[in-house]
Amino acid sequence: MCMSKIANGRIIEKSSNTYKVQTEGGVRVAKLKGSYSYTIENKSELPCVGDWIEAADDGNTILIEKVLKRKSLVSRQVSGDATLQQPIAANIDYVFIVLGLDGGRNYSDRLLERLLTIGWNSGATPVVILNKSDLNDNSDLVKMQAETVALGVDIINCSATNGSGIDELLSYLCNGKVGIFIGPSGVGKSTLTNTLLQRETQATNSLRLKDKRGRHTTSGSYMFEVGNGGFIVDSAGIKEVQAWASIEDIDSVFEEISTLSERCKFRNCQHQGEDGCAVQYELEIGNLTPERYDSYLHLRQEVAFLERRKCEKNRSVERQYDKELSKMMKTTLSRKGLVRQAMG
């Protein structure tokens, strides 16, 4: 079967093991080439929405052969204990962290901190969207509180219902820029997508009345072009935010603590009772809240544990590789010995 190359196709939808790819000839359904999984080191290299790919095509079938170099990758740790990275979208310019102001359990400082680690780790620019502002008379106060958590990050009070904040949101998505909505279910990500597109593209569900918790509406990731030349990705709601991040990402989220640590007496200060700790001092005089401090320590410990798990996994993989290589060499040497015996 003769297959020709397609260059610079971009994945615009991923659902289960099937992809949709935007090519010069239009949107095509694609699957992974059978040997693709043998050419990658880990699952983070699997294709996702936003990836530019090279594929082979016989006119009917597109087989993804290669993912081109990414400039950013939005990902999270998979739910549970596995030390695995779950890609959400690639080549993103803005990570829009969407939280709701409708009285449900959608906004909290701690949740915002965790979602910011995903934003900073991606290599894209995080932007906070406080959605459903029309349902909260204190939306401006919540924004002021969020500004103390998301230091240096743009924050938009937004409402898909009355249109407030939509123009400001659209201003980020022009000239080919790509944004992604991330956040829990029920915060209005799909409704915002429909508003930006000015049509009902994404299905939306009502909230559970008893607790205003969201029901999952979007099950995959989908990229859409908006009217001013940009693109938006709608992704599934995040049930459990486990940080896939580095210590540097945590320092970006807690910038004020990172700055304070430069004044600590010891360079390796862990800010947990050491002499001359500037962070502890600010905590004692009330310039740093206990909640913010505890969240900082918890996330640092979580990331440190993740790093240890990744190192242990790498060592395990190396041992398994060495074991298989040794077994293969023994088999080869044994065969050579049998050949020499037969020739002798």
Keywords:
single chain; 344 residues; alpha/beta; OB fold (Dihydrolipoamide Acetyltransferase, E2P); Rossmann fold; Ribonucleotide Reductase Protein R1, domain 1; 5-stranded mixed beta barrel; two-stranded antiparallel sheet; 33% helix; 23% strand; flat
Superfamily (CATH H level) name of the largest domain:
P-loop containing nucleotide triphosphate hydrolases
Order of helices and strands: EEEEEEEEHEHEHEHEEHHHH
Distance between the termini: 46 Å
Question: Could you report the average pLDDT, rounded to the nearest whole number?
Answer: 83
Low-pLDDT sequence parts: 205-216
Give a written overview of the molecule.
This protein has 344 residues and is α/β, with parallel strands linked by helices. It has three domains: 4-67, Nucleic acid-binding proteins (OB fold (Dihydrolipoamide Acetyltransferase, E2P), Beta Barrel); 73-200 and 220-240, Rossmann fold; 247-316, Probable gtpase engc, domain 3 (Ribonucleotide Reductase Protein R1, domain 1, Orthogonal Bundle). It has eight helices and 13 strands. The protein has a five-stranded mixed beta barrel with strand order 1-2-3-5-4. A two-stranded antiparallel sheet has the order 6-7. The model is unreliable at 205-216 (pLDDT under 50).
